[in-house]
Description:
signal, DUF1091, Ganglioside M2 Activator Protein, Chain: A
Amino acid sequence: MRSFKLLLLLAFLESCMGKRHWTYEIIDASGYSDDETKLSLNWRVERVGRHITGITGFVNFNYDVDNTTMIEVTIVRSVSGSERDFKPLPFGVPQKKFAEVKVMYDDLLYPIMQNCSNLPQIEGDLLWPWPRNIYIFDMCNFDNGNLPEILADGFYRAVFTFTGEVNWNTSYTVNLKTQLI
């Protein structure tokens, strides 16, 4: 009887653990730079098998980030996937100095990209100086990292907009579906 109660307790604790209750498929990855001599990027969505997608490509980061470099993150959702149906969500980041988004980089971006790219782990409180480099991404996906446990079904798009010496952006669109437990 005691082992049965222990088994029930373990089963209950397992069900209480924070797990994602959704799956996704990466639909699109794109980017733009207004000065490709200072920053060029190329993304594509790769598919391995029926259910595995990832982002592959590179960013040639060839300029120095300074105090005028700003970043803004906009996240939108659409039930249908239609361009006119996308509505903003409160998950975004208002325009900030690039060097000041260290917490977002450490908590969200780096855990997602650390095993599939050569993005650096930056020490200290600021993302500065950002190293010039060609950053390679190989089948990056959103399986790791600190993302919400529960999200509504639909199409989600995250747009990262950088302004300063070079104006550039990158966006990712995923189709998210609730995962039945």
